Amino acid sequence: MHGRILDAAAELFTKNGYAGTSIEAIAARAGIGKLTLYRRFADKDAVFLAVALRMAERSRAELREIADGDGELADVLGAIGRHLLGIILSPQSIAFHRILFAEAARLPELFARIVPDQPTEMPDATRRLFHRLAERGLVRREDVAFLDQQFVHAIIGKPLRKALFGASPMTAREQEEHVRKAVALFMHGMTRYSAL
């Protein structure tokens, strides 16, 4: 039932936004009574948080699997980049980003839980990859978080901003070209930066 509630809520938040989604609508879509939903979640904020955290964890798990694979660094970064861009530009992700930005001032604790300011104890996919490079002496250990941040922003920065402002969706070819160029630039820059 928990998963059914979150599936229903994710669908409604994506379609109707935060303000346009009610507890009653979530319960109805999940096929349960409102009181049953309230036994599991205190309020709509709690439902939204649970949906957002589940989305984030699923994405992290998929990306970790790619990052932990074998292959040349550029190929692994390219695979991570393609998958990450696909996740970020999905209609559900765009809808949830818009909600997060709209509700961040009203619900700072909620925003902090979903978008932590500090790295978590369990590194994300690219950070894990850069940690492995640091263990091999290919990058400095103190640069791992910085490299992780720079790579992620190179992949999603501009495409996400454009999507949030309603630009036409990137085609598969445009996404592939964007990732290819971002990875090539990052590899070149990382090599030079690590030598400083």
Automatic annotation (TrEMBL):
Residues 22-41 bind DNA. Keywords: DNA-binding, Transcription, Transcription regulation. The lineage of its organism: Bacteria, Pseudomonadati, Pseudomonadota, Alphaproteobacteria, Rhodospirillales. SUPFAM superfamilies: Homeodomain-like (SSF46689), Tetracyclin repressor-like, C-terminal domain (SSF48498). Residues 1-59 form the HTH tetR-type domain. PANTHER family: HTH-TYPE TRANSCRIPTIONAL REGULATOR BETI, HTH-TYPE TRANSCRIPTIONAL REGULATOR RUTR. The keyword DNA-binding applies. It comes from the Bacteria. Pfam families: TetR_C_7 (PF14246), TetR_N (PF00440). This is TetR/AcrR family transcriptional regulator. The keyword DNA repair does not apply. InterPro entries: Homeodomain-like_sf, HTH-type_TetR-like_transc_reg, HTH_TetR, Tet_transcr_reg_TetR-rel_C_sf, TetR_C_Proteobacteria.
